[in-house]
Amino acid sequence: AILVRYGATLATRIRLHNGTEIEDTGTEILKQFAILDDRRRMREDVASVEVFCPHPFLQTGVELLDLPGTDDQVAQDALVKDQLLTADLIVQVLDGRKLMTLGEREHLRDWLLDRGIETVVFVVNFLNLLEPEEQK
Q: Can you spell out the DSSP letters for the chain?
C-alpha cells in the first residue's frame, strides 16, 4: 500500500519491519521497494510506504491510498480488505478487457457491500484498447 499525502516537496519514506526508515527525494525509490516482484508478491521487509506531494488538493488534508489489486496473493488481499475499512471513498479500477469479472463482483459484495461500504467510484482502464463498438 502506498499512502500519498501532502508534503512541501516530492519525497518518499519507506519503513521496514526492522525499524529502518529510508527517505529520498522524488519517487524513484518506489521502483526498489513498492513494485511487485515477478511472482506478483510484495516485498516482505517493507512495513509502509509514504509519498509526500506538494499538490494543493492534498494540502486540504485529503490522503490517497493506493492498494495492490485483488485476486493476486493472499497477503495482499488481506491488506486490501483491512485498509478498505478506513476509506471514505473507494475508486475501483477495472480492466476494460475483462470488465467486472466474477471475482470482482464477489469482492464488491464480500469486501464492500457486506461491510457497509457503499460509496464506490468505478474507473475503467484499457478502454482505448477496445474496438469502438466494444467501448460502448
A: -EEEEE-SS-EEEEEETTS-EEEEESSTTHHHHSS--TTS---TTEEEEEEEE--HHHHTT--EEE-PPSSS-HHHHHHHHHHHTT-SSEEEEEEGGGTT-HHHHHHIIIIIGGGT---EEEEEESGGGS-HHHH-
pTM metric for this prediction: 0.73
Mean pLDDT of the chain: 84
Query: For 42-93, what is each residue's pLDDT tens digit?
Result: 778 988 899 999 999 999 999 998 876 655 555 556 666 677 777 788 888 8
Angle at 65 between CA 63 and CA 70, to 5 degrees: 160
- 127 near 94, Cβ under 8 Å? no
